Structures are given as structure tokens and as C-alpha cells.
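Repro:
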Amino acid sequence: MKAKYFLSGLFFALGALLTTSCDSDRDDNPILDLSNMTNEFVLNTPAYAEQLTDLATSNNVNFTWSQPNYGMTLATTYAFQLSVDGTFNDAVLDADGNEVTPATYADLSGSFQTVSGALSAAAINRAIISLENWEDESDVPASMPVFFRCKATLADAAVPAVYSNVVKINVVPSFKVTTSYEEFVYAIGDDSGWAIVHPLRSAVEDDAFTGVYTGFAYLNTEFKFRSHEDSWDAPDWGTGDEDGKLAAQAGNLAVPAPGFYKMVMSLVDLTYSLTPISTIGVVGPAQAGGWGDDTDMTYNSDTGAWEVEIDLAADELKFRANDDWAINWGGDINDLTQDGANIAIDAAGRYKIQLYISYEGAHKAVFTKL
């Protein structure tokens, strides 16, 4: 007897209904027949599979696959599992739920909604180490095969997961992998209807990105961090198990109150912090308050700039946040930096200033003489 499941219309287009279902099977919701779903769920063997992939020097390991044969197009989430011996046996538990025999595979972090994706080489290496239980660098072989399979799940938890074929690739493992970080991560939230990303840029140390990212943006009530500017391909990061902690593919992060924030996000220890920017002011002898009192600017959500019309003398100024020097910008007005030099005003007069604060390398100010 075929296993059949009723699916809510939320999960597929009505035009994709199976035409082979008999009238007795067609109720208010169409029926999903899973009898053949593994027939076309193929994890493709990569061209590099027989070569050696050095996990210490590679950033990612790329795969492509096809959707299970659900008989219709469905929104599917894909994740990967890794084995060092080609078996994928679940952990054995006793009556109290204690693990008697561990699983012979590891779940890799991250998920995908498309039929291609890149797995972190560092995550693969960590999974190998955890399965092999190496205690010393001398335990690590010069090379070894590892085995992958892809897991497909639907939003409807009543529908069982389906697994692809197993693919083997050859790798050069490492007892310790130096993690390589990208230059940017991105915040995205309901301030823009989940449509506009706000870049955070990594700090640099010894010509390498440190994995600690800083950016500024207006945030409304919820947001997340994600790794790609133009897609939700894994990984992305949301709420962790305690305040200030992040977890991959987790729930939305809450904003304490709508406003402009400095965001710091670390992939090193999966933490984040938000610093409210309640005011940004012009400070220095070019404006009336000198170095003691700021002339406050106003955030314009339409332009994304902090703005003010102000009388300036031919002197110097800087910008600072929250009437304090902890966060301040100076230097070249087309490339303002934290703790940058004083900005010289060449000619006295009334100016409109627009200050755009985003990330180091993109901060700038526009002075328009009125």
C-alpha cells in the first residue's frame, strides 16, 4: 500500500496537482504520494571527488543535487550528513534515553533551499575529528575518504525525511584547521520588509579577516544575520540559547526598540551585541558648541542619512555618537573612519550635512553649502 499524505495548500502551487490521483483520494487538500520520492533524489558526484581536497587550505566544498520525486514542486530544505566509514546508523539509546552506541555520522551545520550549495571545509574537518576521536596530530592520516549524503525535509513535519545516495570524496584532513572568514556578513530584518541587507565588515589582522564584523543600521523589531548578500543560502544566524549568543539556522533576533544601532557580530564565538545610537552630533570649534557640546543631527529614514542644517566657521569638526567619544568618525569625508582626524571646513557659511554611517570603508559625509 502506498504511503500518502495530505498537504496544506501552503506548500505548493495548485497547478502542480497530481493528475493520477483518483476521486476518492482528492479531498479539500491534494494527496502527496511518496512511493517514488527517492527515484530522482540524486546527490551528484563532484568532478573533484577522486582528487584530494585539502581541508586546511580550502574554504568550501561544493555539491549539487536534484529534488526528491514528490510528484510536484515543493519548498524543500536540504542538509548534509557526513560519515567516515560509509555507514549512516543512528545512535542507539537505552530505555532512559541515554546513548549506548553513538551515531556513525555527523550532521553538518547549515541548510539550503536550492539544489546546490557549499559546505564549509572547516566544518567538514571538525566533523571528521569528532567521529574519529583523534587525540593527537600523529593520529591524522595523510589522506582519507569521507562520505556524504543529503537529507531533504518538508515544512510539514508529518512527512518523513528522505535521503539521497551516498557520495565519496577524498580529503586531506587536519588536526586543527585555521578558519578562513569572508569580508562581509549581512543583517536583514523587518525594517525593510526583509528586502534590504545591511553589510557588516570584518576587522583585519595580519592581512586576514578576523571574523568579527561591525556595521550600523536602523533596525525595527526583528532581524537576522546571513552569509550572502542576495540569498538565504546557508549559513544564516539567529537567536542562540542565551542572550548575546547566536545559532545557525535559528529564529529571528529581537531588537530592544526600533532605532539606529551599532552591530558587532562574531563568527569566532557566535556572539553579537547591539549598541543603540540615540544621537549623532557635529562637534568641534567649527560649530557653536566647540569640543564640549554637540549639534545634534536627525536620522532621515528616507535617505538613510543623519542630517542637519548648521552654521559653520572655517575651523575643524568631527562626528560622534551618544555625546561621547567611544564612537566617533573623522578623516576623509568620503571615507570616514573611527577615531579619524579632524575635518577642516575651508569656508564659513551655512551648510546642510548628510552623514551616511554603514561600515568601515563606506562611511561618508556630504556637505552642501546653502
